[in-house]
Amino acid sequence: MSFTPDQHDSALNAAIGKIFRRIVPLFVIMLICNQLNRSNIGYAESHLEADVGIGAAAYGFGAGLFFIAYALFELPSNVLMERFGAKIWLTRIMVSWGLVSAAMALVSSPEMFYVLRFLLGAAEAGFFPAVLFYFTRWLPDSHRGRATALFVAGSSIAAAISGPLSGPLLSMDGLLGAHGWQWMFGLEGALSVVVGIIAFFFLDAQVRDARWLTDGEKDALTNRIAAEDAVKSSGDRGGSRWRLLAQPKLLLFCWIYFAIQLSIYANTFWLPSIVRRIDGTDDVTVGLLSSLPWICAIIAMYLAGRAGDRMGDRRPLLIIALLTAAVGTWLAAVVSPWPALVFLCLAAMGFKSASPLFWSIPQQTLSPRIVAPAIAVINSLGNLGGFVAPFGFGVLKEQTGTVTYGLYALAFASLLAAASVLVMRSGKARPAAETNEPAAR
């Protein structure tokens, strides 16, 4: 089908608008469920210690085991996603992690806690890179940053609502003879299963399969993405797909994302513990106060995503975000609990904004031949920060009685990551056809 330039832009604009209204919100909801199931143990920590005998170090080790399994199964899961398609594989991932998360209600020993956390990581592996890869096949680069920011905002939304949600669920202690933490794990796990089944009927594997797009919109969208792929592929020198994955810049990507994940997961698992230092708090008030940094982060992430799409080169904004995280975290370590919460809000705006800004860079610069496995490799190795952070915090807290030294370490990691971004090369230029950006509504 041939288009005039105006018709092409109009059709592309309409297609992108539909994706932002139909697909992006669905992925946000899926990530909210994902993060609730991944991080709700942060609110159950003291209860698991009292009822099951899981101490701080054992809790940190169990929380981190999730990421060991995640790293081991991430790339195989991503390869299977390419074989079976995003629709089937994303549904499988979500239903399986919901079932495992619900089984956490049956934990009766530290060993069982370790096994279920490992199984949760194995079940969830592949979800995040599958969604990012989906964006590379459905959205042009001019809108991928905003889509990624909105998607990643789901984790901040989950963190913001998990406190107000977990507090009342924990207060159900004794209902029908079950502990409050058992109600929390069971109900939040069941929610993921239901949303996963619903997602199966909303997702399409390819643009051409989408009945909710017109033929003209499908053509405009696939033509734009094909043009961008051609630009990114122009520098390929041939060779195997796996040899392309051995590029040094891939290791740099892994390190930077590892540093970002250190801050994200240290705060995800230990923020409630930090907030408990404030006098007079209980389960409900800790949950409410713990939501504040994530609410601030949601706003900062979307604004950073829009600014990054307009600038094209996201590196300067990524450096600013990482420096903000470093300063906020360091100040939170040296002040009293109430001001510390304020500075943790600042830090969250930094390290959460860094995530979508970072992911736009490999999406924009890597060859289409390796973008799916590369995202999986970066995500799996980077997510090992999710093991190091909670386990390291647990050991430090048990040895020193405080998380102050852990906050110092996070600040240093963010500062070093900001310096590492300076050695990145800027992204490749966009196709000329992309200079007239359609708006996402």
From TrEMBL:
One Pfam family from the record: MFS_1
GO molecular function: transmembrane transporter activity
UniProt topology in membrane: Multi-pass membrane protein
Residues passing through the membrane, by range: 52-73, 89-108, 114-135, 147-169, 181-203, 250-272, 284-305, 317-335, 341-359, 371-393, 405-424
A Gene Ontology term for the protein's cellular component: plasma membrane
Name of the protein this chain belongs to: MFS family permease
Keywords: Membrane, Transmembrane, Transmembrane helix, Transport
Organism (species): Saccharopolyspora gloriosae
Subcellular locations according to the entry: Cell membrane
Annotated ranges, domain Major facilitator superfamily (MFS) profile: 23-429
